[in-house]
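Protocol step 4 of 6.
Sequence for Dedicator of cytokinesis 1 (Anser cygnoides) entered exactly as in the expression construct, tag removed. Do not edit the line below.
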Amino acid sequence: TKKTSLHSMPVSLYASKLTSTHFFPSKQQDNREMFRSVRHMIYDLIEWRSQILSGTLPQDELKELKKKVTAKIDYGNRILDLDLVVRDEDGNILDPEQTSTISLFRAHEIASKQVEERLLEEKSQKQNIDINRQAKFAATPSFALFVNLKNVVCKIGEDAEVLMSLYDPLESKFISENYLVRWSSSGLPKDIDRLHNLRAVFTDLGSKDLKRDKISFVCQIVRVGRMELRDNNTRKLTSGLRRPFGVAVMDVTDIINGKKKKKHKFNNCGFHTTGLWVTLKLLPGDIHQIRKEFPHLVDRSTAVARKMGFPEIIMPGDVRNDIYVTLVQGDFDKGSKTTAKNVEVTVSVYDEDGKRLESVIFPGAGDEAISEYKSVIYYQVKQPRWFETVKVAIPIEDVNRSHLRFTFRHRSSQDSKDKSEKIFALAFVKLMRYDGTTLRDGEHDLIVYKAEAKKLEDASTYLSLPSTKIELEEKGHSATGKSMQNLGSCTISKDSFQISTLVCSTKLTQNVDLLGLLKWRSNTNLLQQNLKQLMKVDGGEVVKFLQDTLDALFNIMMENSESETFDTLVFDALVFIIGLIADRKFQHFNPVLETYIKKHFSATLAYTKLTKVLKTYVDNAEKCGITDQLFKGPTQRHVQIIMEKLLRTVNRTVISMGRDSELIGSFVACMTAILRQMEDYHYAHLIKTFGKMRSDVVDFLMETFIMFKNLIGKNVYPFDWVIMNMMQNKMFCRYAEKAFQRINDICSCLSGAFQLWNNYFHLAVAFLTQESLQLENFSSAKRAKILNKYGDMRRQIGFEIRDMWYNLGQHKIKFIPEMVGPILEMTLIPETELRKATIPIFFDMMQCEFHSTRSFQMFENEIITKLDHEVEGGRGDEQYKVLFDKILLEHCRKHKYLAKSGETFVKLVVRLMERLLDYRTIMHDENKENRMSCTVNVLNFYKEIEREEMYIRYLYKLCDLHKECDNYTEAAYTLLLHAKLLKWSEEACAAHLTQRDGYQAATQGQLKDQLYQEIIHYFDKGKMWEEAIALGKELAEQYENEMFDYEQLSELLRKQAQFYENIVKVIRPKPDYFAVGYYGQGFPTFIRNKVFIYRGKEYERREDFEARLLTQFPNAEKMKTTSPPGDDIKNSSGQYIQCFTVKPKLDLPSKFHRPVSEQIVSFYRVNEVQRFEYSRPVRKGEKNPDNEFANMWIERTIYVTAYKLPGILRWFEVKSVEISPLENAIETMQLTNDKINNMVQQHLNDPNLPINPLSMLLNGIVDPAVMGGFTNYEKAFFTEKYMHEHPEDHDKIEKLKDLIAWQIPFLAEGIRIHGEKVTEALRPFHERMEACFRQLKEKVEKQYGVRAVVSCLLTSCFKQIWSFCQKPANSFSIENIIDNFVESHTNCMLLCE
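Step 5 output, structure tokens:
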């Protein structure tokens, strides 16, 4: 049994949706491939090593094996991106110290070339594997996809049909038949015997299918049962209806292409409990070969789903006569119904006598043939789109008499109604055309006929009528008329119906010319024409009917043996066919031709006629001469060797030569070889050769600097030529050590020294910061090897730079601030000793500038600017920050004048580094909120130190982050900070103010205008129209009184008008606010042990917000309490998140001095807020068994954010203030009084209000167990002990007593109203409540005094006056106005008295 690898994959099933589960080759998969390759190489090396160590190999074999081993190691190094190893002829590693530079260079070239050849060889081997595979499929150009359905996990609720097929998504068409499995409502196959044997092969696939860009495996599920699943009364419901349920799709391109060779398990995506599990395997060969070679997979019980179309090879004897019919779409008028019909299409095949052909329709492979097929029903859809395909297989002799019949019926969900529904229309199409060819492939727009149901069942009623709209037009009728047309006893309906067909028949053709040849005996008069026309028939159609065509040609020749009339034409036809087979396009039909010759060819005497025709052709052929063409290859260029001892010439050549030159490596090797041979006296002699002209010396040094700078910036050698690169670097260090010793002597008496020094510094810094010297980026083994052989050259050159700097003396000031950046770059190199040696240069710069200008402002500005770019670029770390702080502070504190200012500067830079390091850490973090926080930290720092350019830079970084998250409100506030830096003036814009290319402004006023326009746009998108209006007013003032731009003004005012309308008409979602505490040392410093108020997203619940938080910090633990945590939590190494909802405190702007619409006020309830409250119950003291609420307090915390929300962030840090229980008591008492008063007013305004809420409110307060709700307050606050301990609360206690006293008149009015409205049944309840109230009133008035309010009559009078004032002036005479007003006013005055 052959070993096979299956692809086991669950395909996600989404109800009523088309979805796809793709397998993408990831980087992880590439690494696995690499791992497997390296593992095989290591196994080989272990095996070869054991052979070498055995000592049994002859010398020649041992030498060959060593070469094999080294070649394998070098190949492995290359594919793993390791360094190139150079060897001698025996495979031994070359020692750079014992090998000349030129020899090393040539060894690198040879080794690199060998590795490249090895790579090509490996690639060729892989291609050979692919070629072998392709050859295997080429030998049997048919292949099949084996599918094993493991399970369908889907809660359907009824029986179902599971239809699987192959689909080309780019061409948007199915390429195979369906494989149909009937699934029961119990979740098992209906045919239980096939439970573990649901297998199918999709056959007839060819090389063209292999080359498809994409192939999908599609599963459709059709529910078979009721119209609606939610209908439960099954007795009265129609059953057996086919209804759409779901579809799933998987990309199987890699499986078809053979890229997946091992078993893979695909996790189900989407719904974890829903899916389709299948195993897939590509098999070579046709169905006969597959059954023979893979009997363990494919047997006689395996369903065969054929390709919808011909295979690439049709073998003689392979007879097929399939017609694929696809129901495409329809459009059906609802007729007398109120809704669209539930149309079911029934497909059947009838002959011309009206007899139905039985068992000729196949809904899918694996299922039995049926006599009629019923379509899926789309509920109340006027224009259903089915795209359902069935196969119709009719005996060839019956095709010319058969037609497809489509009947349409409305299906009702109620069984009683459904039985009365009859066929309301019919369509048909004949399978054979009038010219004897079969129905054309493609779409057919069929005519929908209407008639009485009985007439529609009679084939003679409609068979004489046109079946398609094209036929209708050919007969002179209109196919686009809106009104119905009568044809015979049928009426052409306005409904439409489209199908598509595909004929796959080896006996029926759609080509008239080929049909004429195949049926040549029926009309011999046209035989000569038919033979000539054969050469014009499409080759694909000819090879499909190859056996029949060849039989026809030989029969024509042999049956006309007495005549030579057709011999030449037959010969030409045979040559044409053989030429077709020889064509690359049809070369896979060679086996078909050979099979025909061996098994089916029977015209044994045809050769006599064929050879005669051939001889005639040969005799008349003209011999053509052949001219040989000579091709000359490109001549090789001869390269001359540059004089080795002319160093300057070599240097100039290296400088001028491009990096793409083939010779550049050789010239650099020559230069390196020359420098390598030079000793001390050579360098001294080199300087002397320039004579007394010091300018020549400077020119030489400049050339050398330029050359090395170019070599450092653009490496000549590949990165893996480590030895050559390190040799080049070593020569630079030596050159610097020997030649640069004389730079000070040369420059001390030379006016142009500055440029030489400057070039030296920049070159040296570029050298020690080059990638090839950053040892910390290498593996430990490579780092140790380089340190052992070459040392850390960065340290050597760094010390040279330090010494050169200190030797500048009085010239140092010329290099400030230009050299601050390069020196900073050098100090940031992560080499501790180098940092310690070079950081003091900064203090020397500070000191130098201070002595010159009495400040070090230029140095400070430059280092801050450069530090930002360097840290963002990846340089700098915590150790550098510590060293910078320690070293510079030590130097500054020792200086007489720089002690204070220097320390301030150092602390400033350290703070900046903290923020920049935090920013860099999360710069590429997926959590954009963390990035925003760090960005704000940095921009606030730059704002604090008044670095406007850097501040604006980070403002736009923050703005971009907000726009990525659709935080348009926050983006607007961020841009507003930039706008506030600008004036409404004609003052020119500095370069740093216009950091974005989108702004084209010459003046600050113009830039501010553009910014305001953009900010208003963002506020509009964020629905912050109040803010947009405020900015618009400021901008309008400029347009109207300064710019006089009335066109812009009018447009702006129209926007403002729309904003005002939006405020009062558009309902805006109110976001919730959440307090979030991040506790524990595991959080980044910028949020660690801090509390923030977050503004939630629209309609975001706390649960969703918490889930979002925990997604950002997956290792964090959610705290279950809202109390502040202790130090144990704060100092722990973990992460703890505390989250709860807080309530924003309304802070109305002062302009709202009178009541306004709630639609206006609602904005300020959740916007422009800075104070947030949270209340939680706490118990103080021991629990009182008699009154569990005696010691229960409400602790209310007010959180005040650093800035108002919303702002430049959706969150801000907070500080909390705990309100005392006394203040809480005052607030609670005030709310209770307001509640009583409000309910009293409601009952005064509306006498019909129900009394129950008032009863509950009053009784809950006057009940003896509650006693007004202030008993606990008396015990807690009205005691001598409390007054003694809290003398500052005297006024608050008096206010609380006053509120208690005021509660009595409010309650009295409420009880009075209650007595008027109470029913007799509740009279006892009311009398008890009155008695309780009298007791309460007596107690309160005795202790806290009497309070009184005007009665309801006074309130009524005021309402009369107010109502009167609201009436229009023209509704009364002046006398009525005066009389009414005087009467109301008098009543009010009397009541007041």
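Step 6, annotate. The CA atoms of residues 1190 and 1275 lie 9 Å apart.
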